[in-house]
Specification:
It is a single chain. By secondary structure, the chain is an alpha+beta fold. Helix content is 24%, strand content 18%. The chain has one domain (5-176). The strands form two sheets. The protein has a six-stranded mixed sheet with strand order 1-8-7-6-5-4. The two termini are 20 Å apart.
Length: 193
């Protein structure tokens, strides 16, 4: 189950989400805050509809057969994004996909999960990571506040990453614009996430 709500960049940094490089979660969350959502009358609104599958969004089934689901069980739909192998993920910006390689198991484990309310607005946003090919790690699942999303939206990518990086070298690696690498390696569990 969700451990806590992240309200500040320092809390996001301490959570470990999207770290260390070459994981893509920090860039995924930046893209989500910058290009996928906006704010209107205190609500998070989307420029797109996650149910359409744009950018690799797909329905998240909060597996109720597990003893401890990672997000609250609600009669509202959840959607996830971030699987770089999923149909539509090739529409994510290059800076999100840039360092992806099937040969590096940890660089495709980060996800953003959203819950839609009855009006189609996002009433909850979460970040999480896979613990294995089939499950997310409940101890690494955090709710992201509207305030933190707004903080991210109001920063340049370099500013955002510099505040989250532990060293200047790490920030440089996160901001690299290397070529998107689609090497096939079916031996790595990241290929099925």
């Amino acid at each position: 189950m969700v451990r806590e709500t992240l309200n500040e960049l320092s809390q996001l940094k301490q959570s470990g989400f999207g770290q260390p490089w070459p994981r893509h979660g920090l860039n995924l969350l930046y893209w989500f805050a910058q290009d996928y959502i906006d704010f209107s009358n205190g609500n998070i609104v989307s420029y797109y509809r996650p149910e359409n599958g744009d950018f690799g969004f797909h329905k998240y089934h909060n597996r109720i057969d597990e003893e401890d689901p990672i997000v609250p069980i609600q009669n509202l739909p959840y959607y996830e994004v971030g699987n770089l192998n999923y149909s539509g993920a090739d529409k994510l910006p290059n800076y999100v996909r840039a360092n992806y390689s099937r040969n590096i198991p940890d660089n495709n484990k980060d996800r953003v999960i959203v819950r839609l309310d009855a009006n189609g607005r996002f009433n909850r946003v979460y970040v999480t990571e896979h613990s294995d090919p089939k499950r997310f790690d409940g101890s690494k699942t955090f709710r992201v506040s509207q305030g933190l999303l707004l903080i991210i939206k109001n920063k340049s990518r370099d500013q955002y990453l510099s505040e989250l990086s532990n060293t200047p070298g790490e920030q440089a690696r996160f901001t690299q614009q290397s070529d998107y690498n689609r090497q096939a390696n079916n031996d790595s569990w990241c290929t099925i996430l």
